[in-house]
Amino acid sequence: MEQQVFQNATVIKQTGSLYRLTFLPAWDPFTAVLSGKLRLKGDNLTNPAAVGDRVNGYWQPAGDRQANHAIITEIQPRKNYLIRKSVNLSRQAHIIAANIDWAYILLSATEPWTPFPFIDRFLVTCQAYRVPVTLILNKIDELQWAADYAPQAEHVKKIYEKAGYSVMEVSAKTGEGTAHLAGRLKDKISLFSGISGVGKSSLANKLDPSLDLKTAPISTAHLTGKHTTTFYEMHPLQNGGYIIDSPGIRGFGLLEITKEELSHYFPEIFAASASCRFNGCLHAGEPDCAVREAVEKGLISAERYQSYLKMLEDPDGGKYRT
Ligand SMILES: Nc1nc2c(ncn2[C@@H]2O[C@H](COP(=O)(O)OP(=O)(O)O)[C@@H](O)[C@H]2O)c(=O)[nH]1
Ligand SMILES: [Mg+2]
Ligand SMILES: [Zn+2]
Questions:
Q1: Which of 206-220, 221-235, 257-271, 303-317 is modeled with the greatest confidence?
Q2: How do the domains of the chain map onto residue ranges?
Q3: Does the predicted TM-score (pTM) go above 0.90?
């Protein structure tokens, strides 16, 4: 039977072995599966292709797009991607998303609380795989009545600003702070990451009310460990650009990062390490360690340094699943 080939479709969703593709900027999704050859190649990956991937392939027979799954035969080289150890199959890796212009890790100014090791594992992965990243502190509207949370929220903001990251403060409920963010999303592919309940889907909806993504109160979504979004999915923004909304990530095992490399992905630790006495200093108790000195002087935050030490010890992050 005759084949009709296609090129440069973008993966907008993956559910198990099924992929949804479209030819951006058009939004006319169709379903595809991987060719046998690609499935074999991706042996150590739970998903050889991920949301954001640009792919080539064919339909068989020609023309009947809805009745027949397309076959993906080729994944185009990636600009970047984010990857983590698979939660279920520890020897496998899972590609979270590819070709991301900007990643945002959402935190809640109130509840739920995101443990520092989780934040830092995500930031390290972004640094290692060249994905620019910004933190978003959401739910700032709640600080008005839940004032007890304010010092903690301020503390988190300081820690990450000191480390060289920018932290945007927003409220998905009132829209405060979202205009600037909306401007940054325009014509870009942006990833919203963070644990369940921090407001990823709510924020996406606020930025573009046409999205209508499902949201869930944290009492049900967070505490019972249920997730309203089960899959990473790309959504088009009315004003141009795309958001990849993600399920609440539970664990974030580091991959392919050696102990020697790890400090390179903590920008402030890396900067200080230039003055360490030893070239291969791991900043874990060696003499004349400039990183340790910077921590003692308060120039590097103790939380970030603790995360660093824990990652040195336990790159899998098994203990830091939320
Ligand atoms: N007060 C307030 N509640 C919010 C805000 N953003 C999200 N929420 C609530 O937090 C809960 C979780 O939101 P959701 O968008 O489903 O979080 P996700 O799991 O990160 O996608 C829902 O009950 C939302 O209504 C916010 O900025 N302010
Ligand atoms: Mg959600
Ligand atoms: Zn050192």
A1: 257-271
A2: 4-77, 82-245, 259-320
A3: yes
Q: Ligand 2 mean position to 215 CA, how many Å?
A: 5
Q: From 3.30.300.10, 1.10.40.50, 1.20.272.10, 3.40.1670.10, which CATH number describes the 259-320 domain?
A: 1.10.40.50
Closest protein CA for atom 28 of ligand 1: 139
Q: Is 105 in the pocket of ligand 1 (CB under 6 A)?
A: no
- Three-state SS letters, the chain: CCCEEEEEEEEEEEECCEEEEECCCCCCCEEEEECHHHHHHCCCECCCCCCCCEEEEEECCCCCCCCCCEEEEEECCCCCEEEEECCCCCCCEEEEEECCCEEEEEEECCCCCCCHHHHHHHHHHHHHCCCCEEEEEECHHHHHCCHHHHHHHHHHHHHHHHCCCCEEECCCCCCCCHHHHHHHHCCCEEEEECCCCCCHHHHHHHHCCCCCCCCCCHHHHCCCCCCCCCCCEEEECCCCCEEEECCCCCCCCCCCCCHHHHHHHCHHHHHHHCCCCCCCCCCCCCCCCHHHHHHHCCCCCHHHHHHHHHHHHCCCCHHHCC
Q: Which two tokens stand for residue 244?
A: 């990849």
Atom from ligand 1 closest to the CA of residue 215: 16
Does ligand 1 have an atom closer than 6 angstroms to the CB of 228? yes
pLDDT tens figures, 245-290: 987 766 677 777 889 999 999 999 999 999 999 999 999 999 999 9
Q: Which numeric CATH code is attached to 82-245?
A: 3.40.50.300
* CATH fold of 4-77: OB fold (Dihydrolipoamide Acetyltransferase, E2P) (2.40.50)
Protein residue whose Cα sits closest to atom 12 of ligand 1: 197
**Ligand 1: nearest atom to the Cα of 202:** 15
Domains 4-77 and 82-245 agree in fold: no
